[in-house]
Amino acid sequence: MQYIIKTIVPLLFLLIPFGLLAQSTYLPQGNKHQPFLNRLEILLQSNDDLNLSTVKPLSRRFAVRAAEYADSVHKASGNLLSKVDEYNLRSLLMNNSEWVTVADTSDFYSKRSIWNTFYKTKANLLEVNTKDFFFTVNPVLQAGLSAESDYSGDRLFLNTRGITVRGMIAKKIGFSAYMTDNQERGPQFVQERIIRDDAVPGYGFYKDFKTTATDYLDARGSINFTAAKYLDFQFGYDKHFIGNGYRSFFLSDFSNSYLFLKINTRIWKFNYTNIFTELVPQTINISTGNKLLDKKYAAMHHLSMDVTKWLNVGIFEAVVFGRENHFEFSYLNPVIFLRLAEQQNGSADNAFVGIDLKANVAKRLQFYGQMLLDELVVKELKDGNGWWANKFAIQMGGKYINAFSVKNLDLQGEINLVRPFTYSHFDSVANYTHYNQPMAHPLGANFVEAIGIVRYQPHPKWTTSARLIVWKQGTDTADSNFGSNIFIPNRNRPAGDYGYKLPNGPRATGVNAQLLVSYEVKENLFLEASALLRNYKSGVGSLADRNSSVITAGIRMNMFRREYDY
To answer: Can you name the residues that pair with 319 across neighbouring β-strands?
Structure first.
């Protein structure tokens, strides 16, 4: 990846400076408008900008274009959007005003600014919007106190402070940056996971804080430009998500951020994404500091196609590989099949292929799914002997908006299953992980999971949600590898080659349920209260069981919620 930084990225800037076109930054992870955009995709049913949005985060320009189109359809028909939807639409436009083309933006501005400089608009602390320059600065805040039953330790808390900026120069160069300083003492099961993985879930390096708490930074940023009208380039340090469900088997935003180069080509009914990343392999004592971490790499392709006005199909492929800290240049070819390139390199790397689909039905329903193949031999599958190397993952889900004719009541159900040893490799470098964390599902492999979500927004300012996650997973023991821990090389299989069911090994069961009530005091400022119930039985003895009941109250500003959904 060092070669990419030193040669390819500067070369792009040298070769295409006069061909740059309008460029947008991207909506941030977990942004508050994503549920509305999900609703809008189903309501519009055949909008290409949203139907092709399998790779997230979504461009602000495309989000605004879809919202303005929905607004025009609603004004013509009068029945597309509810009053709450209309509020959410105006909020989306307000928070992405650099791309708004509607004439009336008077409601974007504050009645009273501070010193005629700060909060001139409702959405941004500082906003500059001139002919060739757009720039915003906003504070970032999340503070919460929690109480956990049967926990005699210090009080749980989360304290996040930071800043986020974004801008555009002549609508040709886009840039964004986000940085927070965080102190956190999560529930007991989170503390145990930090000790196990030597990494804070969703982040990376940390320091101990007040014995049982952690102190960590979250810094992200990228630059963007568009060339040749249809090609978007993004280079930065951040996360991505590929999928239409709550979970993703291709690429999720669960692990730490990473260095990447993304090339996105959107033309006609196609959206083609190339992502090249630099990752950190499994490392012992990763958070001790004063050491140079090794590197590994991944290349990913995703092609999304609107087969019909309501049906979208995607094809995914990825390869993860370790070298002596240098990139494998054969994987830079954006149109080659990565599995074929991997074979030409000696078949030593970890390659995946997959397919996803989603269908919008009757402007009320969306059905979606993913299938990922790590390895598969059809003959072994037909024999039904549980061959260890039949490694795959399947997702099936659905969304139902305005359920039972109740406006802004949205339901979602999802089933996920992953065979043993999926995402693992015969060495400990090329597994599908980054910074001691899975890059797809938080549970790794060897599990079956069901998710149910209810979201209701009865009023523009009030949002409520309930989430239930239930899973069964085979667990590894000190002496046996049953295929759950994707960090363990899959050549270590004391049970042999056959007999691997799903889930395989001693069965752990888990239930994670959450209730959330959120009130938006002012634009992007939320007061929230939540209750989390988690019950976990390890399957290997009561000493490893863990039951948690957590009540939390907090405030959040200009950032995503911190979730403990595993």
So the answer is: 299, 351
Q: What is the pTM of this model?
A: 0.94
Cα Rg of the chain (Å, integer): 23
Q: How far apart are CA 550 and CA 265, in angstroms?
A: 44
Largest distance between two CA atoms of the chain: 75
Domain 2-557 has CATH 2.40.160.10: yes
Does residue 503 have a cis peptide bond before it, meaning omega lies within 30 degrees of 0?
Answer: yes
Each domain of the chain, given as residue ranges in start order, spans 2-557
Residue 562 gets which letter from DSSP? Answer: P
Q: List the one residue out of 163, 27, 29 whose CA is nearest residue 562.
A: 29
Per the listing, tokens 């492929």 go with: 317
The H or E element spanning position 42 is helix 34-44
Q: CB within 8 A of 205, min separation 6: which ones?
A: 199, 216, 217, 286, 287, 289
Closest among 312, 314, 305 to 267, alpha carbons compared: 305
Q: How far apart are CA 200 and CA 564, in angstroms?
A: 11
Q: In whole angstroms, what is the distance from residue 48 CA to residue 62 CA?
A: 10
Q: What is the pLDDT of residues 189-234, one digit of tens each?
A: 999 999 999 999 999 899 999 889 999 999 999 999 988 788 999 9
Q: What is the dihedral of CA 479, 480, 485, 489, to 10 degrees?
A: 90
Give the chain's length: 566
- Report helix, strand and coil shares of the chain as percent, to nearest 5: 15, 45, 40
H/E element, 89: helix 83-94
Span 418-472, pLDDT tens digits: 999 999 999 889 999 999 999 999 999 999 999 999 999 999 999 999 999 999 9
Q: Calculate ∠ Cα 504-510-516, nearest 5°.
A: 150
DSSP β-bridge partners for residue 102: none
What would the DSSP string read from start to end of 47-73?
Answer: -HHHHTTTEESPBHHHHHHHHHHHHHH
- What angle separates helix 83-94 from helix 34-44, to the nearest 10 degrees? 120
CB 278 within 8 A of CB 247: no
What are the tokens at 121?
A: 């608009």
**Region of residue 33 (left: phi > 0; alpha: psi -120 to 50; beta: else):** alpha
How does DSSP assign 183-216, residue by residue? EEE--HHHHHHHHHHTS-TT----EEETTTEEEE
Task: Indicate left, alpha or beta for 543 from its phi (over 0: left) and psi (-120 to 50: alpha).
Answer: alpha
Cis peptide before 506 (omega within 30 of 0): no
What is residue 13's three-state secondary structure? Answer: helix
Residue that is written with structure tokens 């320091």 in the block? 207
Start-to-end CA distance of the chain, whole Å, equals 32
